[in-house]
């Protein structure tokens, strides 16, 4: 006998298909507009439109939002070419007097016997920038913050002039004639890491980038780790944080050991 009722075999399969389709659609919406967007690091729950855009893979920075936090200013020092110019002998003399307060950590002639950075022969704009960052609270170190607190702009210029005038701790610059770690020589284009020598000397020197040759290894390791972990944030465009964040422990060790390799020679 044929079943002509609503729940005939044909109608039952149609009903099951409709229910299955509705359930599948509901699950797809839940996963696509809820679960997947929320798993993304920059997810913001700002309504259905945001969820649709995030499900489609649109970065949150493309979306118009007025509640996003402004980027944290990591330094307010503006580097100018004149900061790198040679200073007068009077400025060097004043800086030598001021530097008496720095000898315990940085050495009598700017060559540290501890893990403090060597300052002899350092670029003057580098010293001025770091002193300003300490004074303005953009770089943390209890001793340096206390010492820089009462320094005037002229004092900082004089200190920079004095240390820049000392017999250079920086030995012959890095060249391709020696064995270089990969990150120093060519960087890592796949990770968007520029070679160290493109900023820190050897091939080119970016204004404000310190000379690293002969620096104490442990100091370099500490600073790279601080950049990597975000504890040091006074790189204006986050260039060092962006690089260090991608470096492995082994790479930090290798780069630091390479730049510290001439420390003993520079100390004589």
Automatic annotation (TrEMBL):
Domain of life according to the entry: Bacteria
Signal peptide limits: none
Keyword Heme: yes
Short name of one Pfam family: Cytochrom_C
InterPro entries xrefs: Cyt_c-like_dom, Cyt_c-like_dom_sf, Cytochrome_c_Oxidase_Subunit
PROSITE patterns: CYTC
Gene3D superfamilies for the chain: Cytochrome c-like domain
Molecular function per GO: electron transfer activity; heme binding; metal ion binding
Domain Cytochrome c, residue spans: 90-167, 182-263
Keywords associated with the record: Electron transport, Heme, Iron, Metal-binding, Transport
Keyword Electron transport attached: yes
Name of the protein in its database record: Cytochrome c553
Organism, scientific name: Massilia yuzhufengensis
